[in-house]
Specification:
Elements (H helix, E strand, L loop, with lengths): L1 E3 L5 E3 L11 H18 L4 H5 L13 E3 L5 E3 L22 H12 L1 E9 L6 E13 L2 E10 L3
Antiparallel strand pairs: 1-2, 3-4, 3-7, 5-6, 6-7
């Protein structure tokens, strides 16, 4: 990014990262911040969750939001899933992924689950651990989540 210092001189500032592995603390933080926004603003928060350069997207990390009956309402990595009933979707091993994480969040308030899923831009499923949280916004209940892809 080009920046102008107080003395008027312009400089280029940049940073890079190679093969960074996300950790669970980062995922919990993203979900907690997204959950607070959804609790406060409801559906009006969804646009912020979808922003490609926003605070809820980093590398292959993104936030998804489902309804308790299994309809995906936010999925910036796979927008074709938005509006779809995902409760019946199975991972490569046959696990009912969304049904499991929705049930865990509704029962415990928040939970970690593990399944196989497609990393954004990849067509080979890999192990993924997802953290989900039950969120109340007015009369609406949502399941907000994100996950970390586990490299073997």
């Amino acid at each position: 990014k080009r920046v102008t210092f107080p003395n008027g001189k312009q400089h280029l500032v940049g940073a890079g990262i190679y093969n960074m592995q996300m950790d669970k603390a980062f995922i919990v933080d993203v979900v907690d911040r997204a959950s607070a926004l959804v609790a406060e603003r409801g559906k009006a928060a969804f646009a912020a969750l979808r922003e490609k350069t926003g605070p809820f997207r980093f590398m292959d990390v993104y936030v998804f939001v489902d309804t308790p009956d299994g309809v995906e309402v936010v999925n910036p990595a796979q927008p074709s899933l938005e509006g779809m009933k995902v409760a019946a979707l199975k991972d490569a091993s046959g696990k009912l992924v969304a049904r499991e994480y929705i049930a865990a969040a509704l029962k415990d308030g928040s939970a970690w689950t593990e399944y196989t899923w497609y990393k954004p831009g990849d067509n080979t499923p890999v192990r993924k651990q997802a953290y989900v949280r039950k969120v109340q916004s007015g009369q609406e209940t949502y399941i907000v989540g994100s996950g970390v892809y586990l490299e073997e």
